[in-house]
Amino acid sequence: DVYKRQGLNRCSIWDCYFTGEVVGSSLLGGVVGVNEGYLTHCYCACKIQGKNKVGGLVGHQDYEKTISHSYWDIETSGVYTSAGGEGKTTSEMKRKNTYKEWDFNDVWTIKEGMSYPTLKWQYKK
Hints:
By secondary structure, the chain is mainly beta. The protein is built from 2 helices and 14 strands; from the N terminus they run βββββββββββαβαββ. 34% of the residues are buried.
């Protein structure tokens, strides 16, 4: 039963990222295992290891919910498919122009060509 799995999203998630590691057997994703909600402006750059319904960003997409302007690093993850989002190379993930319609004035920051985006609030004192 997919509803008993961890990683179930039934809400709206926006402006998020994950750079750790995901390990399990099935219904795994870099941000969400099973998506029944909305993902916007999210990315992951993490290693993902699983066997069934494994996605770079989302493992399984239920219903007709929306995933927009969200990405995963295909080289870092080792995963080339996802139930939503767009797979990009590590080089692309470190370029501002990859992230369509992201707010790099008030929400995100990036060291062009050197790092993945991070949230600006993380650096406020």
